[in-house]
Design goal:
The complex is a heterodimer. By secondary structure, chain A is mostly helical. Chain A is built from nine helices and no strands. In chain A, α1 crosses α4, α2 packs parallel to α9 and α7 runs antiparallel to α8. The model of chain A has no long low-confidence stretch (mean pLDDT 84). Chain B is 51% helix and 8% strand. The chains are: A mainly alpha, B alpha+beta.
């Protein structure tokens, strides 16, 4: 039996493809799991997180924390969410670029192994015989196309789907700022229960927008997120008392 | 949906520039353009605001100052750490050290100003070198990634140039770019080498003659024997040379780098010396405003040459802008250096001082033969089948000057013999 080169590390081409797909999925995921990338989603995320932190502090320290402390919290939160969003997006972009560079190197230096991977990929799609050979030959001839195929089919990545880190950060900034202003106004002019209701509405609206963006069922998202909000509010309240 | 493949070559040639990243949506890529300049300008504005507020609201002013350090200090710090890791103690490291330590002696604004100037200098340097990248991109576009081979059934098949070995026969049609250095086996044609040599007049090629990669085949299909693989081709070597030239710094910058390194090491050494030795020589404490550490930091800040750092790119950028206003486009600072030491200029006229596009001004016919209109019609009919620049000029003249154009029933093209 001939010894397999280091490219496959003793695995079969199809297993190598499966591993590469897992690697691709990990590359695009954020720290807190898979999400729809983009400025609107990051805005919704900022709104939801600020609403939760606010409501917990509000319940636990009701009339103990001054307005200034809340304003400080809001400003710190705006900065944190904006910068974190940008840094996470940049980190993801760096990982994607590194992966692309690695794959390009593989295409240029391990052409035979890449051919085997392509054969495995397209065999799994139902291609065989002369047609399979021709498809593989055509793909192997064009390096740009081959790289795109490998990124999309082998790694499971999608081109032109992510927003620029600064645009995403801008979304987070607007989300955090808007929720800060609304919650700040609640602190100034609303009593205990209206504040809780407005915070809940803010949280649910953000979750509905996120669900719409993810093309999930809006009704389900609204109910589940309302339930989560109620659990958090009740837990905070009961623990305090 | 028929989707053309994404062209990754430019992205890799740019050094993975995020403004052309294949993963970013087209609509959001502009956010990454000229980021360094945008950051420098933003930091300068925030610093100005911070300084203005320092007379009224000190806390707010310090908050803004922190942002300035974040925006321009973080990249400078990262670069300095990289330099130190590579054992390169240069002016940049000295500047960053001075800027951050200035906070310890209560000179946060001065430190921030140093960092802003440092960043502005970097942004200007980037602007100076940006123009040279265009040449590299156009060469990458010129470099084909595929060659065409004839299989045993005489079918033309595409093949990646990485799979082409020396001695293999490739097929290049009229209008295509020759992908690899090769020798003509079959066919006769003219090739354009304008991107390789600057000569815009086509050169005739026939069996036995060599053609470099990157040449544009104009007239007819050629069968070529590959002489060198893609990594050894003429075009690849040109791209390598341009890439190296791009990384080369202007002359003054090189001198400054050499001097700067020695200067930075000396200053840092003296700073440490002042901080440790002074209390031994004089009755001076280590800490406090009167202490040796404070004095050594003041020395370090005063000795950081911010003017020297910003002077070079400013001078080059001003010269490039001044030339641009007069319609002269310079590709980076190295070109300026070359011009400064230039005494004699030789021009390759065609395509440099002239456009390289031929036009017909007037023509005459032999007495008693054809009328001018008839001759032009025949000339048009003949040249219609040829892609040579002279033929193009005749065709263009005929299209403008005669109303009834003729089409030949049959046409035979015989290449001229030497």
């Amino acid at each position: 039996m001939t010894k397999k080169p280091a490219h496959f590390q003793g695995k079969k081409p199809l297993q190598h493809v499966v591993d590469a797909q897992v690697k691709g999925r990990i590359t695009v995921e954020s720290m807190h799991g898979s999400e729809v990338p983009g400025h609107i989603f990051s805005a919704c995320d900022a709104v939801q997180e600020l609403s939760i932190i606010f409501i917990v502090l509000y319940m636990v320290f009701f009339q103990l924390l001054s307005f200034t402390i809340f304003v400080t919290l809001f400003i710190a939160w705006i900065i944190w969410k904006t910068m974190r969003s940008a840094l996470l997006a940049w980190s993801r972009l760096e990982r994607l670029h590194r992966l692309t560079e690695q794959e390009r190197w593989e295409i240029q230096h391990h052409r035979e192994q890449e051919r085997e991977e392509l054969i495995a990929l397209y065999q799994a799609k139902g291609f065989s015989g002369q047609l399979l050979e021709e498809v593989v030959e055509v793909l192997m001839a064009d390096e740009n196309r081959l790289l795109q195929v490998m990124l999309e089919e082998e790694m499971g990545l999608a081109l032109e789907t992510f927003e620029h880190p600064l645009k995403q950060a801008c979304g987070a900034f607007i989300g955090a700022l808007l929720s800060s202003i609304i919650l700040g106004c609640c602190l100034l002019w609303c009593s205990f229960y209206p504040t809780i209701i407005i915070t809940a509405l803010l949280f649910i609206i953000a979750s509905i927008i996120a669900a719409k963006k993810e093309k999930n069922r809006i009704g389900y998202a609204a109910i589940w997120n309302s339930a989560v909000f109620v659990v958090i509010v009740m837990t905070s309240y009961l623990l305090k008392t | 949906m028929n989707r053309s493949p994404y062209v990754f070559d430019e992205f890799f040639a740019s050094g993975l520039e995020e403004s052309i990243s294949p993963f970013l949506t087209k609509s959001s890529r502009h956010w990454g353009k000229n980021l360094e300049i945008k950051v420098a300008v933003t930091a300068a504005i925030v610093l100005l605001l911070s300084f203005s507020l320092s007379f009224f609201y000190l806390s707010l002013s310090y908050i803004l100052l922190t942002f300035v350090f974040f925006l321009v200090g973080t990249p400078a710090l990262m670069q300095s750490i990289e330099d130190c890791k590579n054992l390169e103690i240069n002016i940049d490291v000295l500047m960053t050290l001075a800027a951050f330590l200035s906070v310890a002696v209560g000179g946060g604004f001065e430190g921030a100003l140093l960092l802003v100037l440092f960043n502005v200098s970097g942004a200007m340097e980037q602007m100076v070198t940006h123009k040279t990248k265009g040449a590299l991109h156009s060469l990458h576009r010129l470099s084909p990634k595929q060659a065409y081979i004839l299989d045993i059934n005489h079918r033309i098949l595409p093949i990646s140039i990485h799979d082409v070995k020396t001695g293999m026969h490739i097929y290049v049609q009229a209008g295509e770019i020759v992908p690899l250095d090769a020798k003509v086996i079959k066919g006769t044609s003219s090739v354009n080498l304008v991107h390789l040599t600057g000569e815009s007049m086509p050169v005739s090629k026939k069996a036995g003659m060599e053609i470099p990669a990157g040449a544009v085949n104009i007239d007819a299909a050629l069968t070529l024997e590959v002489l060198r693989t893609s990594s050894d081709s003429t075009l690849c070597k040109i791209i390598d040379l341009i890439t190296k030239a791009q990384k080369a710094k202007p002359k003054i910058q090189k001198i400054l780098d050499v001097v700067g390194q020695k200067y930075a090491i000396s200053i840092i050494f003296l700073t440490v010396l002042i901080a440790t030795i002074l209390p031994w020589l004089f009755s001076m404490p280590y800490l406090g405003v009167e202490g040796s550490i404070y004095r050594s930091l003041a020395f370090l800040i005063a000795a950081s040459p911010c003017a020297l750092i910003i002077a070079t790119p400013t001078a080059y950028l001003s010269a490039i802008s001044a030339c641009a206003k007069k319609g002269i486009l310079l590709k980076g600072g190295i070109t300026l250096d070359a011009i400064a030491s230039c005494h004699v200029i030789s021009f390759d006229k065609t395509g440099t001082l002239t456009t390289g596009k031929l036009t017909v001004e007037s023509f005459d016919t032999l007495e008693g033969s054809f009328s001018k209109q008839q001759a032009l019609r025949i000339a048009y009919g003949l040249e219609k089948h040829v892609t040579h620049p002279i033929a193009q000029a005749i065709m263009s003249y005929a299209e403008k000057n005669i109303s009834l154009l003729v089409t030949l029933k049959s046409f035979l093209w015989c290449p001229a013999m030497d």
